[in-house]
Amino acid sequence: MSNRLKDNLNSRYFEAANQMTSKKAKRRIVAYVESYDDIYFWRTVLGRFEDDKRYFEVMLPSHQKLERGKKSVLMNFIEGRVGEDMIACVDADYDYLLQGATEQSRRVVTSPYVFHTYAYAIENLQCYAPSLHEVCVAVTLNDHRIFDFTDYLTQYSEAIFPLFIWSVWAYRTGHHNKFSLSDMARVIDPGGFNVFDPQPSIDHLRQKVNRKVRQLQAEYPDNKEQYLKLKAEIKELGVTPQTTYLYVQGHSLFDNVIVPILNKVCNRLRLERQDEIARTARHHTQRRNEMSCYEHSLQDIRQMLKKNNGYMYAEQFRRVQSDVENFLTTARKSPET
Predict the structure, then answer these.
(1) 3-class DSSP state for residue 66?
(2) Phi/psi of residue 54, nearest 5 degrees
(3) What is the dihedral of CA 173, 178, 181, 187, to 10 degrees?
(4) Of 64, 106, 72, 101, which Cα lies nearest the Cα of 89?
């Protein structure tokens, strides 16, 4: 196959290829994603829909060029390539919350062949609060619950929710140059905190958020009605004050909030296990061997977090799978299939 033909693959090509195979052969549906890191996530989304009639192949949009990112994936939509045998799978970012306010948002929320995460990004789902204790166990092999991730991220979300509405407003109305995602990330960075006394961290965060909200209210004094209307709409889209962390910029949440917390929690859990080994070993040789065995079993926090699939219990993940199920049901009913 020529490079030119490869570069112009579309859903009709894969549909024709499927029709040329044996009637007993499985139908191949290509799912284009933004980066290598996204392949595993979308495999967990799509895998449950594979059977003796169909299978998915998750890949980057181009084999010829190292093109990555959302624009590269959505270019297939622009050029009319996607369809029942070729789909696009992307992070929602703010496009879901913008609800068609921009051209890219319209593509993401209206095309039946474009699927998105509902949460801002895959990183947010990897940081799904109820699953973080399991990440700590995987890293440290210590199942002692010394930190309530769900409670902390609930309070964190409630603290940042008022400013989050302003952030979405800024991007819906073209004011993002006045209040960008980077500006938002700086304000909602909780900074350092004590594992056994996280409340001062939340209190400090609330102060920072309230200060920025007052500043924006002063700059846009006539915006109250629009703000309240958007707040109600955002809630209807599934965002709650308790789950805001799933909708803020993903890599900032991952790097600035969750990884620092996991570092502190996991360090305490490691020390606990090491103290236990030192205390219970019957002699020096046993202590040294046990300690060496334990330390060789420890895992890297970032790698474990990236492999975390506890998000499969999250409402956002179930919504993605529901969209895929509806797509496949519609495709089966299509007279062309």
Answers:
(1) coil
(2) -150, 155
(3) -130
(4) 72
β-partners of residue 87 are 31
CB 142 within 8 Å of CB 273: yes
The Cα 211–Cα 220 span in angstroms is 14
Q: Give the pLDDT score at 278.
A: 86
* Residue whose tokens read 């196959």: 1
Distance CA 108, CA 236 (A): 18
Distance of CA 98 to the CA centre of its chain: 17
Give the number of other Cβ atoms within 10 Å of residue 226's Cβ: 13
* pTM for the whole structure: 0.88
What are the residues facing 197 on neighbouring strands? 194
What six digits make up the tokens of 47?
A: 């895998």
Beta strand 54-59 with 86-90: parallel, antiparallel or unpaired? unpaired
- For 227-236, how does the pLDDT look when each residue is reduced to its tens digit (9 = 90+)? 999 999 999 9
Closest to 210 measured CA to CA, from 246, 176, 166:
166
Q: Residue 84: what residue type? A: E
pLDDT tens, 101-149?
Answer: 999 999 999 999 999 999 999 999 999 999 999 999 999 999 999 999 9
- Quick one: which of 148, 154, 126 has its CA closest to 314? 126
Query: Phi and psi for 26 in degrees, rounded to 5?
Result: -75, 145
Closest CA to 246 of 117, 108, 101: 117
Closest by CA position to 194, among listed 237, 226, 236, 146: 146
Residue type, 261: I
Structure tokens, 230 = 């958007």
Order of strands across the sheet that contains 86-90 = 54-59, 27-32, 86-90, 114-116
